[in-house]
Amino acid sequence: EKGLRVQDKGFLNTAVIRSEITYIDGEAGVLRYRGYPIEQLALHSSHLESAYLLIYGSLPTREQHLHFETEVMRHGNMHVDSEEFFRSFRYDAHPMSMLTSAFAMLGSFYSEANPSLQGQKLYTNGDKESLATMDRQIYRLIGKATTLAAMAYRVRQGREFVTPPVGLSYTGSFLYQMDHLGEEDYKPNPVLEKALDVLFLIHADHELNASCTTVLQTGSSLVDPYSAIAAGCASLYGPLHGGANEAVIRMLVSIGSPENVPAFIEAVKRREKTLSGFGHRVYKTSDPRSFIVRKTADEVFKVTGRDALLETAMALHDAAMKDEYFIKRKLAPNVDFWSGLIYRAMGFPMDFFPVLFAVPRVVGWLAHWRQMMLQDGGVKIWRPRQVYVGAGKREYVPIEKRG
Ligand code: SDX
Fold this sequence. Notes:
Blueprint: E1 22-25, E2 30-33, E3 36-37, H1 38-44, H2 47-56, H3 62-76, H4 83-87, H5 95-109, H6 115-118, H7 128-157, H8 170-179, H9 190-203, H10 210-219, H11 225-236, H12 244-255, H13 261-269, H14 288-304, H15 309-321, H16 324-328, H17 336-345, H18 353-373
Antiparallel strand pairs: 1-2, 2-3
Helix pairs in contact: 1-9, 2-9, 2-18, 3-7, 5-7, 5-11, 7-8, 7-18, 8-9, 9-14, 9-18, 10-11, 10-18, 11-18, 12-17, 14-17
This protein binds s-citryldethia Coenzyme A.
Keywords: Transferase
Protein name: Citrate synthase
Family: Belongs to the citrate synthase family.
């Protein structure tokens, strides 16, 4: 392996693609979707409008937006392709396990999406039919993301699945499928509906994070997009990544109260504990999303009431931000530090929080997957090398002669 060099563990400082989708400046704390600052999109756009922007590269016209939204909702609001599947889970299955497997299962349902069955150039030859097939899978996966998540939630409660009425927003339809218990006049709370839309928008993409890299690594073999998204969902599940929002709440509950924060900080500095929700591979000053989440939390708490854990979270945040140990390591709150408090205040169960990260992130995964399918020169399978440091050549020893 002449000239091969192991990049530091974890792909540190390794770029594997050129992308036009999302720009991050870790030193300046900047995040832009196709050049638009995340702060402007959070204020003026919606999750589905930003989804169109991320996937197709420009803000949609009114007509394009209406078509996209209609198709996403049309493909999303059905259960026939997943009802029996969800009934097979144990009552206490982790919803991320259910979601991950449900995405893979969908691939078996939609054979039109499978290059192994329809031909390797299904997505890469860029003609009208190929683009239309790709769009249909994109609509369906974004639409189904909320439906599958709601089904996982209802399975855990032993409740029937509900089909939302036409005309609700993306997050309104999601909340309806989660919370509807048969009331005639059920309407999602508009403040929570909007807050969830902002949270979905800022979680939609984050360039080559672990889960997006997993989607591209998997998709590079020309597998169907449902299997590639399932792989990304599995990666996001981990507590170092999308599972951190659940880990933050477990951490805050274990700390118990602001008085216990100093002792917890000392335990982190002794490396006995991890401060979940802090630190980031790219952001070395601040995660711009954390400010948007913090502001959204105040709006939600006006409706739901403040969460008792907020005091502990604020005490922990303030203590860490002025402690040399964290300052020296450039550790600041990331998107996960405050988001769990909102989801908890909205009444979601703790192990459902990573699902609320995965649902919107399907957009970013699909944007990068589509970019890879349409890249000049076609798709190259991702196959990195290694530097071999194992044993040299040796002869086989029969078991009776082994020590
Ligand atoms: C997400 O990549 C993305 O973009 C991800 C994401 C996205 O939108 O897709 O932004 C979403 O995953 C956000 C991160 C959520 N994860 C957590 O909050 C888990 C807690 N954070 C850490 O596990 C850690 O900060 C990572 C995993 C986020 C980043 O790890 P790195 O870049 O590999 O950094 P590192 O482990 O090399 O840490 C550098 C130093 C080390 O100290 P030294 O060994 O040099 O003395 O900082 C320390 C680490 O021990 N450190 C922490 C810490 N994070 C890093 N110490 C205490 N608590 C922490 N949270």
